[in-house]
Amino acid sequence: MLHRLSPKEQFELLVSQWEPVVRKAFLSAIEDIRSTIVLRRIVERLERGDIAGAIQAMNLEDAAFRELDEAIRQTFNAGGVGEVQQMPSLRGPDGYQVVIRFDVRNIFAEQWLREHSGSLITRIIQDQLQAVREKMIDGLARGDNPTRTALDIIGRVGGTGVRTGGILGLTAAQARYVATARQDLLSGDPARMRHYLTLGKRDKRFDRSVIKSIEEGRALSQNDVAKITGRLADGYLKLRGDTIALNETFSALNESKIQAWRQAIAKGDVDVAVITKTWLSMDDGRVRHTHRAMHGQKVPFEAKFVSPSGAQLEYPHDPKAPTAETLACRCRFTVTVDYAEQLLRRRGRG
Q: 0.85 cut: is pTM over it?
């Protein structure tokens, strides 16, 4: 006998299937941008002090993230289809079972996908532009070698022939962490060099070299610092990929759940007045206190959940909610239909 997945099991299965797809799509976009950059073109423009031209030569554009856009669309579709499969058998006034299908081409579904993906990609690109611009301005102000500056941005080619270690793909804040670590390690100041050893995303294989330099009272060489901070940048890039994958997978799956029910409501298969949503948090020590307090909160289908912070969310990972309520959130929600009430309503209560 086949085991019917519970809503929780179904959601966890979808997350396990699609989160890696979204992560890979983001990282592939960054790799594609790196692989198409002509280093000499950037260096020549930096030598002239042409920062705008150097940035333009990097081709940071929407088209580079089409794979990410498609991964989100596929995740959204899978979530909607999965939700329809989880819906209990619904019967119309004539007693016959109604047929419900999820339509990813529905005008409202397409509108959400277009606006959400467009906004995400715009934010990613704007973050890239800010990080790259800050790095170039800082490099020129210090009189750094233009080639070194360019390589710190786009990464260096390793034994695999693939560029790694650059700040492309990082948030502007993460790029600043890498820049600060670079200056700390080059400073020769023991206190500043020890600060690098507190960074959670550092490659600990380099710790011995850093500690030795501190004990000997000397700065690390430019080449050593490039290697160390390159691996630090890789650590932050992995974190960025993990964060985007989790946030976008949960947002797409939860929004498609809402859209699936709205499509059923629009067809007249179920009355919106008899549908409720329930917030469910993860039962572990990593849940933020606001979401732990929201566990079990029930609201009408078209209403919003209310956090103790005052934030209102249509569902966990609602893109319109404050980042403090959505970043790395692992909560989910369920939808419940009062079929007895719906039957009474449709029969005019007797």
A: yes
